[in-house]
Amino acid sequence: MGCDILCNRYMTSIAANLQAVRARIAAACVAAGREADSVQLLAVSKTWPASSVREAAAVGQRAFGENYVQEACNKAAELADPGLEWHFIGPLQSNKTRQIAENFAWVHSVDRLKIAERLATQRPQELPALQVCIQVNVSAEASKSGCTPDDLAALAHAVAALPRLRLRGLMAIPEPSDDSRLQRSRFALLRQLRERLNSEGLVLDTLSMGMSHDLEAAIMEGATLVRVGTAIFGERNSA
To answer: Where do the domains of the chain lie, and which CATH numbers do they carry?
Structure first.
């Protein structure tokens, strides 16, 4: 009985948290003069068990973001739900690209051509094109992955030309900050970079930016996809 009560409380917590996040997104869209359905919610489930994903899926969440390849593959196999959409959002390593190409629908963290070429070569022919975003280091942090804004154009045009990939847009993880002006300036840079690429002939529709603490600022600057983990599942037990 005690376990049942605890599990029910946990289920209710995830459902309530998802409802609260969706309400935040809707309110931010109203403030930005945008339609609520113009922003997709990606639930970041890294380090959380398959049971947590199942609870979120039970209340309508279908897209989930993961940083660790094997963990994500194990969850997908355990859940065996073809209606779930798996997004890889972590740093990319050459020795993991085959698993990513074979098991994910999206990759948000492409930051160099070598990785993109491996993903293109290793994407199975029977699967749809892999949807990809290029990660840009908008805050110039030495510890962050992502190409520089100066290197973006050449990389984007090269990635867009690869088979078995579809370049959808850009992704960024700015430095944590409570300064809304700084938040918006980082996100505005990513939006401007996408606009520049589109003016050069690319057709990019995605800005993957904004997390639990700054999704409102991201939506004000044009985010089409926000990546939210803590506000849905709670504080993580590991990085």
So the answer is: 2-233 (3.20.20.10)
